[in-house]
Amino acid sequence: MPKVQKPYVIINCPTCSQAQGICPACKDRRAAMWLMGRYFVWDKKVDRWQIAEERFQRNLHQGFNVLLILFGIFGLGAMVWQALEQKVVLDLDSILEFLSTRNIWKILASISFLGDLIVSSRIVKARQERILVAHRDSELLSVPAPEISWPDVIREETRFENIAPAFLAAAQKVVEGAWTLAERLKNPEVMPIHIFAALFAFHDTQVVFGRLGIGSKSLSQRVNHVLAKMPTTPNPPKLGQAATEILLRAYLESVMSSRPIVNVAELIVAVGYDQEVNPG
Amino acid sequence: MAESLAKNASKFILRELIGDIILFPVWWYVKGLARFSAFCWYKVGEFTNRSRLSPKVWFQNLFVPMYGDYSRSGRAISFFVRLVVALALSVVFIIYLFGFSIFFLGYLALPIAVVYYFLRQLFNLPWLTF
Questions:
Q1: Other beta carbons less than 10 A from residue A239's beta carbon
Q2: Using one digit for the tens of pLDDT, what is the confidence trace for A97-110?
Q3: Mean pLDDT to the nearest integer, A131-148
Q4: Which of A131, A172, A217, B99 could bridge to A165 as Cys pair (CB 3.0-4.6 Å)?
Q5: Tell me, what DSSP letter sits at residue A260?
């Protein structure tokens, strides 16, 4: 029976494991995926500063939105209260007369309405600016992946497409959680088992394992057992090659299932492919 | 490292808090308008081409007899039934189009109306009277 060739290939940097600091051969991309004639890489630094900066940005963005929404509700409330006070009836003339009067509450209400428009534009804009997963092209997917080595890949560096922006905030949090766990345990690299452990914090993961009839308590005990055996180092951890492969696989899952973004569900499936996490 | 973090953070704050507010009208009337127009156009197109209520489809099949009744009387009845349904759906379509036009105009007028209302609260600008 002829062997079915896969439409994708994940190529690892051969010098990454020996390199101290930033790997000169791949500039810390560690792995790349060939899919539909394109090269995909995880081109985002994961360290304490990056995590702190992203957390700050996320919180500030959400905080500002919440503040504007609350101010909008306050403005609307002030307007309704004023209307009730002035005994406005549901009649066009009466409403127009009410709106035509001027006072401080109406100034605040009009600013809050402007805030409402700004917050709605910010929410739509954030969605619009989100970089989506590559479109699934069945014709290109029918082409088997060529046999390529890392030097061939790095020659195409200008064509590299970063997959990190396609990860939803929840999926980004999993990567951050995995790094934080590896740092806490003083492990030299973020491994798939760290991603798996970080996934436990999410409701989706617990639902999946619950439906599979796997008890989360026994599973977390086994994960802790594996994590306890990992080597330790005083240096901060790096994102490992195997973990990068997981991220590329999660992206692949999204492309294959025509999903616009990479979410926690794709990471769960991708982690399942790892030999260390799922030896069966 | 901490210095670059502070620099990035201040850049982000400037972009988030000030940029978004100042550039809001530009976004609303350029990118936002393009997106909103595309949405309205898609919805109208959905009604005319893809919906079961499409009057276009009823007009296209005006001379096709219903229930495979190819007799002269069957053709005549089918023609008038299809004509009545197509006309009724055309009226529904016009109402639908009118609704979307108001929706679209509302999008265009909303920021101007809110800013005008705010300015009117500060200065004594003219007000609507009927």
A1: 25
A2: 888 888 888 899 99
A3: 86
A4: A131
A5: S
Alpha helices in chain A (DSSP H): 48-85, 92-100, 104-129, 138-141, 150-155, 169-184, 192-199, 203-211, 216-228, 241-256, 264-272
Q: Quick one: tokens of A160?
A: 């590299």
**Chain B residues closer than 8 Å to A113 by CB:** 114, 117
A52 at interface of B, judged by CB pairs closer than 8 A: yes
- Dihedral sign for Cα A73, A77, A79, A83, please: positive
- CB contacts < 8 A (A, B): 71
Residue A230 neighbours by CB distance under 10 Å: 15
Sequence-distant contacts of A138-142: CB under 8 A, at least 24 apart: A140/A7, A140/A36, A140/A37, A141/A7, A141/A36, A142/A7
The CA distance from A98 to B38, in Å, is 36
Q: How far apart are CA A183 and CA A188, in angstroms?
A: 8
The pLDDT of residue B130 is 60
CA A84/CA A103 separation, integer angstroms: 15
- Here the tokens at position A100 are 């035509």
The answer to whether the Cα torsion of A111, A115, A121, A125 is positive or negative is: positive
- Sorted by sequence, the CB contacts under 8 Å of residue B13 that are 6+ apart come out as A60
* pLDDT value for B129: 65
Residue A155: what pLDDT?
Answer: 87
Token pair for A183: 């740092």
Using the predicted structure, report yes or no on whether residue A19 has a pLDDT greater than 60: yes
The answer to whether residue A123 neighbours chain B at the CB level (below 8 Å) is no
d(CA B70, CA B57): 20
Identify which of A80, A70, A62, A60 has the alpha carbon closest to the alpha carbon of residue A115: A70
Chain B residues interacting with chain A (CB cutoff of 8 angstroms):
1-2, 4-5, 8-9, 12-13, 16-17, 20-21, 24, 27-28, 31-32, 35, 110-111, 114-115, 117-118, 120-122, 124, 127-130
First to last CA, chain A: 24
Q: How many CB atoms lie within 10 A of CB A109?
A: 26
Sheet harboring A38-41: ordered strands across? A8-12, A31-35, A38-41, A160-162
Positions in chain B short of pLDDT 70: 1-5, 129-130
Structure ipTM over 0.90, yes or no: no
A194: its two tokens: 């760290």
